[in-house]
Design a protein that fits this description.
By secondary structure, the protein is an alpha/beta fold. The protein contains 13 helices and 8 strands. The protein has one domain: Phosphoenolpyruvate-binding domains (TIM Barrel), CATH 3.20.20.60. α2 runs parallel beside α4 (61-74).
């Protein structure tokens, strides 16, 4: 069964799908080990981890696809990829969809920001005309054909055009054939309720960024409101940044790791990286 089909099967179930964000192969393997059913790449996290830059549209399509393909190959779970604006017009989106299918993605997210885009919870976002993004969604759907790739249409219009405009755009993107709707950065529980009421029969995404625009309500609360997916796109990145900072401060102050707690056991890490399997293969083909 394809990863896209697996994701579509999960979308048919009544429970909300909790999806952590990943930014490299290690974070992806940890999400898989933790027992989640789906994972999603974070453009924010990939920009930070591969370029050391903020989510300001610095990543090219080639760089994003390279990172995402490596993550997809490292795990067995369905992977949804944040593909920003599609890196151009409808023709560029068509090529992107072909590449997404080729590397085995379960789904892609396409947003209606102007390029270069920004993180959905940053100030200063601007969006392209609704008709232009509708054309991008239609081109993605046509290129996908009978493949199970899930197309998630995202609108960032709430920030500068208001919630009503975001809902209007969402309706147009679903009409164009998107499978899932992602209204980015609603600013209250009331706004989340309004979105859910406007789309009672559409799978909806909530995006919870710690310190971001959207309130941190639980997955169960979101399910009760009518949402189908909740992303936690930056949680793993923020957690590892904090842990690594404290670790490095300890080494800097003491010049040793002898008293350092909270490290994964070296043998356990080898198990995570499947070292025993490769040792056995090495022996077999020596």
């Amino acid at each position: 069964m394809s990863t896209g089909k697996k994701l579509r099967n999960l979308l048919q179930k009544p429970e909300i799908i909790v999806i952590p964000g990943v930014y490299d192969c290690l974070s992806a393997k940890l999400v898989e080990k933790a027992g989640f059913e789906v994972m999603a790449t974070s453009g924010f996290g990939i920009a930070a981890s591969t370029l050391g830059l903020p989510d300001y549209g610095f990543l090219t399509a080639t760089e994003m696809l390279y990172s995402v393909s490596r993550i997809a190959q490292s795990v067995h779970l369905p992977l949804i990829a944040d593909m920003d604006t599609g890196y151009g017009n409808a023709l560029n989106v068509m090529r992107l969809v072909k590449d997404a299918i080729q590397i085995g993605l379960a789904g892609i997210i396409l947003e209606d920001q102007e390029f270069p885009k920004k993180c959905g919870h940053f100030a200063g976002k601007r969006v392209i005309p609704m008709e232009e993004h509708t054309a991008k969604i239609r081109s993605a759907v046509a290129t996908r054909g009978d493949n199970d790739l899930v197309i998630i249409a995202r609108t960032d219009a709430r920030a500068n055009l208001g919630l009503d405009a975001a809902i209007t755009r969402g309706s147009a993107y679903i009409e164009a054939g998107a499978d899932v709707l992602f209204v980015e950065a609603p600013q209250s529980k009331s706004e989340l309720q309004t979105i859910a009421a406007a789309f009672p029969d559409v799978p909806l995404v909530a995006n919870i960024v710690e310190g971001g625009k959207t309130p941190q309500i639980t997955a169960m609360e979101l399910q009760e409101l009518g949402f189908k997916i909740v992303f936690f796109p930056l949680t793993t990145l923020l957690a590892v940044t904090q842990t690594m900072t404290l670790c490095l401060e300890k080494i800097k102050q003491e010049g040793t790791t002898a008293s350092l707690s909270g490290l994964v056991d070296f043998q356990d890490f080898q198990e995570l990286m499947e070292v025993p399997k490769y040792l056995q293969m090495e022996q077999e083909y020596r």
